[in-house]
Amino acid sequence: MTATLITNIGELVTNDSEIGDGSRLGILRDAAIVLDGNRVAWVGRATDAPATDTRVDVEGRAVVPGFVDSHTHLVFAGERSAEFAARMAGEPYTGGGIMTTVAATRAASTDELRENTRRLLAEATASGTTTVEIKSGYGLTIADERRLLEVASEFTDETTFLGAHVVPAEYANDRAAYVDLVCGEMLVACAPLARWIDVFCDTGAFDEAETRRVLAAGIAAGLLPRLHGNQLEHGPGVRLAVEFGAASVDHCTYLSSVDIDSLAASTTVATLLPGADFSTRAPYADARRLLDAGVTIALATDCNPGSSYTTSMPLMIALAVREMRLTPAEALFAATTGGAAALRRDDISRLAPGMRADLVVLDAPSYVHLAYRPGAPAVSQTWRGGAKHAL
After folding, report:
1. E strand or H helix at 176, and its extent?
2. Are residue 371 and residue 324 in the same domain, yes or no?
3. How many domains does the chain have?
4. Which of 304, 327, 342 is the C-terminal boundary of a domain?
5. What is the tens place of the pLDDT at every residue in 198-245?
6. What CA–CA distances, in Å, run from 368 to 23, 62, 122?
7. Using one digit for the tens of pLDDT, what is the confidence trace for 147-194?
8. Are 59 and 138 contained in the same domain?
9. Which of 80, 282, 322, 370 sits between 20 and 30 A of 139, alpha carbons compared?
10. Shared-domain flag, residues 315 and 370
11. Is the pLDDT of residue 95 over 90?
12. Per-residue pLDDT at 256
């Protein structure tokens, strides 16, 4: 292995309170970090850095852990700009446009799906994402759901079976038959390619009884649970996520005090998706109330062609600070360590010896610029698994 010293770091965010200034972000100034293979080997002051084979001078820039995007729908075909324009003209978001993407995805070749996913992941890497979760959910047949997971598996180990995204048109008059399919033959075909099972539990999607069936079947097949919940209205999503021990419940736009208390008493992460709130003109999730109650929160892009067509985690951080009333430090932590918790990963999101060498060199002197300069090019370099990626 070849050790690499990244030095002359003006501000290093380690997310380790035992390093640097003792804060939760563990900030170390005038710092350096040594990468050996795909792991962090050493962190400290630049003046104390050991000799290495390779040296990279970042000229006083800030370095932060790589962003963890724990909720995406990257494998799809087509686009829905007309739907977006209609929403901006006043039409409400109902989730009904999902079937537009299903039709386009079913018609696309596997190579087309692969290349679109590759393009979106290149965008994400250029904006600092080093770990990404990818869901199925735009096929809704046995063959297409498996095909989407096959493509997703080429790019990440964090793959999610979302056959219970919506009920497809061909089952509109027999919902029970579709739930049977998801819990039966479709699950058998897809489980070997997935780590997670997910359900869109909300109005117009799947109700409490249907969600219970799908989650229970997925868990019995060896998948770990996560959930879309409480995006469009108050509902059972959070309660079910906590009951099933889900790693995360995502959206959390409409929450009761009971929902918040149950999340605070659980290990379930509230994954907030400000890009979806922005793109649908929905209320933003009350991140401040969640944090103050002791709930672990994550930020993710929800990248999809209908309700959040962005791969930018820096944009999520800026929206969370401006619209969700998080501090820049809280937003960065949610976009890194919060996302790792939502994926139940303890090997990423900290820059400390032994951790995976995923880091981002910002084109700025401080992490605060992620929110301070929204829309500006934020990233100078992205390193994933100890390797620098071309941007």
Report:
1. helix 175-181
2. no
3. 2
4. 342
5. 999 999 999 999 999 999 999 999 999 999 999 999 999 999 999 999
6. 15, 10, 24
7. 999 999 999 999 999 999 999 999 999 999 999 999 999 999 999 999
8. no
9. 282
10. no
11. no
12. 97
Closest CA to 388 of 66, 16, 156: 66
Asked if 50 and 102 sit in the same domain, the reply is no
Assess contact for 195 and 159: CB atoms under 8 A.
Answer: yes
Q: Residue length, the chain?
A: 391
The phi, psi pair for 258, rounded to 5°, reads -65, -40
Neighbour-count burial of 390, counting CB atoms closer than 10 A to its CB (0-12 exposed, 13-18 middle, 19+ buried):
exposed
pLDDT at site 2: 80
Bin 148: left if φ > 0, else alpha if -120 < ψ < 50, else beta. alpha
Please give the Cα distance from 298 to 248 (Å, whole number).
9
Which DSSP string corresponds to 219-277? HHTTPEE-EEESSSSS-SHHHHHHHTT-SEEEE--S--HHHHHHHHTSS-EEEE-HHHH
Q: Say if residues 254 and 275 touch (Cβ distance below 8 Å).
A: no
Which residue, 207, 195, 210, is CA-closest to 159?
195
What one-letter code names the amino acid at 332? Answer: L
For the full predicted model, state whether its pTM sits above 0.90: yes
DSSP string, 328-340: HHHHHHIIIIIHH
What CATH number does residue 97 fall under?
Answer: 3.20.20.140
pLDDT of residue 390: 85
Q: Is 358 strand, coil or helix?
A: coil
Burial class (CB in 10 A: 0-12, 13-18, 19+), 324: buried
pLDDT of 1: 54
The two beta strands, 359-362 and 297-299, are: unpaired
The helix (run of H) or strand (run of E) holding residue 34 is: strand 27-36
Rounded distance between C-alpha atoms, residue 109 and residue 113, angstroms:
6
Considering the chain, what is the average pLDDT of its residues?
Answer: 97
Q: How far apart are CA 117 and CA 97, in angstroms?
A: 20
3-class DSSP assignment, residue 182: helix
Whole-angstrom Cα distance, residue 120 to residue 114?
A: 10
Q: What domain range is 171 assigned to?
A: 67-342
CATH code for the domain of 17: 2.30.40.10
Residue 74 CA to chain centroid, in angstroms?
11
In terms of domains, do 202 and 111 share one? yes
Best CA proximity match to 77, nearest among 119, 107, 97 = 107
Radius of gyration of the chain from its Cα atoms, rounded to whole angstroms: 21
